[in-house]
Amino acid sequence: MSTADIKKNAQDKMAKSLETLRADLAKVRTGRAHVGILDHVMVDYYGNPTAINQVANLTLIDARTIGVTPFEKKMGTTIEKAIRDADLGLNPSAQGDTIRVPTPPLTEERRKEMVKLCKSEAEDAKIAVRNIRRDANEQLKKLVKDKSISEDDERRASDDVQKLTDKAIADIDKIVAEKEKEVLTV
């Protein structure tokens, strides 16, 4: 394995860590409604737990209301019960074929909890990035030990990995700052 392969591998893994952070933060509730908060809701579909987006169409009715339109009308009450039981603090109500899911405004205390959760997710992502850096540096040291590369090459590659790490950490800080701002905006 060459130094370029190690750097590319580290860069790919860091990019995956950033994507995971974005996905995790997308699930954090803000003051506005978004269909992503229902992503992990599972509905009993003929005895099989099924993701809600597989049995219904999810849309935004307005800034605070999600519309859930079941593909099969008889699934309405089952979907409504699944949303209620999902422990999201949501209270769906059926209106014709559509289930309206109003998202209550967040209290100041709840917003602060959400910010703490965001910071915790960010810290987990930073730890993952640092572990990737450590693994890459260990691979580089192994190449030096095997005499595949010189110590100068190892130093240059290590510096490049550190630059990748610094960029990933800066991106994490930026992503979390944006999410915090979104959460704290009333």
UniProtKB/TrEMBL annotation:
Pfam families: RRF. It is found in: Cytoplasm. Keywords: Cytoplasm, Protein biosynthesis. GO terms for cellular component: cytosol. Residues 22-184 form the Ribosome recycling factor domain. Transmembrane segments: none annotated. NCBIfam families: frr. Belongs to the RRF family. This is Ribosome-recycling factor. It comes from Pseudoduganella lutea.
